[in-house]
Amino acid sequence: MNYKPIIIVAGEPNSIFFELFFKIKKKEIKSPIILIGSKRLLIKQGKILKKKITFNTTNLLKVIKKKNNLEKINLIDVDFKQKKAFSKITAQSNKYISTCFDIAVKLLKNDVSDKLINGPISKKTFLKNKHNGITEYLADKTNTKKFAMIIYNKNLSVCPLTTHIPIKYVSKKVNNLEIINKVKLINNFWKKKFNKQVKIGVTGLNPHCESIDDFNEDKKIILPTIKNLKKLKYDIEGPFAADTIFLKKNRKRFDLIIGMYHDQVLTPIKTLFEYDAINITIGLPFIRVSPDHGPNETMLGKNKSNYLSLHNSIKFLDF
């Protein structure tokens, strides 16, 4: 069987990514890997961590030409000049990260693969408030209008209707079209990836789905939208109070829970599964996956970081 390569953007150079990559059980992975990042930094950090891997140094044109005959691990070197193996995260890495993503997008557009992973990135430093997150950054780069972020675990997944925006803006973004678009994307993804219709639960926006205001988003927007989707034969229920939907007897009814804002669903999913979850962007011209954690500056060089989320990201795309 011919496996398409997995493209991996190393992400923030001063993160735990290379440490995690060293720890991956590469013998279990069938797909070739195209790693895009700094060779210089990979070697420097490897010496500190006392780790080493074998890779084939290549470039964009060679990979496009040999896309069906690649080595096990292929490194496209994007130089990043830094004296120390580990340092603080600054805007100096922005151009480096952007170049890595540009190379990845060119590979994807040239049909080298349709599978992308990015390592952890400091959104505040890299995005400079131009995008809410990497999900939106990649959607903009690929001119994608409809997309969704899923935090996936085989037992339960979640999707925030809104992503990295302040709470005070959330209610303005809750509307029937946004809910419908997310549900359609999720259902299509589940059918394509898992060959089944997804069972979806939806949280309300307000505590207990109640509001002291005359306008209650749960009754006026969310409930009617769910009723319409049920008429269209989607397997969907709600709205449910966010403080009880994640109780064991409730959550086991669903494959995925849609929440109205980021922490409403990411806090419980990370509490339940910790590192055993991955971040998936659907709706792009390719599948984008990333480990469900950040750069973790406090753990740099300590060789104690958990590689499970990165390993699960790679295994999810190993087909």
What keyword list fits this structure?
alpha/beta, Isopropylmalate Dehydrogenase, 2 domains, 12 strands, 37% helix
Q: How would you sum up this structure in a few lines?
A:
The chain has helices spanning 17-23, 39-49, 60-65, 94-109, 123-127, 134-141, 167-173, 176-194, 217-231, 248-251, 262-273, 308-316, and strands at 6-9, 33-37, 56-58, 73-77, 115-118, 148-152, 157-160, 200-203, 236-240, 256-259, 278-282, 287-291. The protein has 319 residues and is of the alpha/beta class.
Detailed description of the structure:
- This protein is 37% helix and 17% strand.
- Helix 8 crosses helix 9 (217-231).
- It is an alpha/beta fold and 319 residues long.
- The model has no long low-confidence stretch (mean pLDDT 96).
- It folds into two domains: 1-144 and 284-319, 3-Layer(aba) Sandwich (Isopropylmalate Dehydrogenase), CATH 3.40.718.10; 148-280, Isopropylmalate Dehydrogenase (3-Layer(aba) Sandwich), CATH 3.40.718.
- The protein has helices at residues 17-23, 39-49, 60-65, 94-109, 123-127, 134-141, 167-173, 176-194, 217-231, 248-251, 262-273, 308-316, and strands at 6-9, 33-37, 56-58, 73-77, 115-118, 148-152, 157-160, 200-203, 236-240, 256-259, 278-282, 287-291.
- The protein has twelve helices and twelve strands.
- The chain starts with 5 loop residues before the first strand and ends with a helix.
